[in-house]
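re: ur question from yesterday

yeah so i grabbed the chain u mentioned. its 196 aa long if i counted rite. heres the sequnce exactly as i have it in my notes:
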Amino acid sequence: MTIRKSRLSASHRGETGIGSMIILMSLLLVSGSAASLIVDTNNDYTQQAQDTAQEAMAQVATGLEVVDLVGHYRDGNIYSLDILVRLGHGSVPINLEHVIIIVETNTNSLDYTMNSTSVETRFAAKQVCMASGLPLWTDDNPPIIGQGDLVKMTLTCPPVPIGQAASIKMIPAEGHATLETFTVPDNIVGTIVSLH
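ran it thru and got these structure tokens back, copy pasting raw so excuse formatting
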């Protein structure tokens, strides 16, 4: 058996070089596409993580804070409440049309909304101090409370007699609920009682 040595002619050498170049270019294109896909996926995950973190922070921080609570007294009972509220620190603005207020006494529990069709379960809200720069509430502008704003919410509550306790829970559409409890004092002079 004899081994033959063969030499490539000049024309065959060019074909081998072109084939190698095509393979090299296709490898570069595939690796470039893979790298681009990895970078795009990384950017998508980064954006998703930032959005999730912002939503989580908004859920934790968003809520109302009670500044003052005043009861109106008559015939041995508190029969209505004025609740002065502001946003909690770090809270995003809250539309009060989407807030539910629950008042619980020893014998009764009522849910209040701003747009309730019943007078007994509707609360009213009034802008007291507007420091956020949000527009005044009108038919065209919803009742949104922003950072620095003070709002007085008024509602007619179930009767709470002297010495009894009650609680108020304010629940925004997004964020955490605020719970405020009070006990009607035994010694009341006049018709307005501070309960905070």
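noticed a couple things. The longest strand covers residues 150-161. also The chain has two domains: 11-61, 64-194.
anyway ttyl
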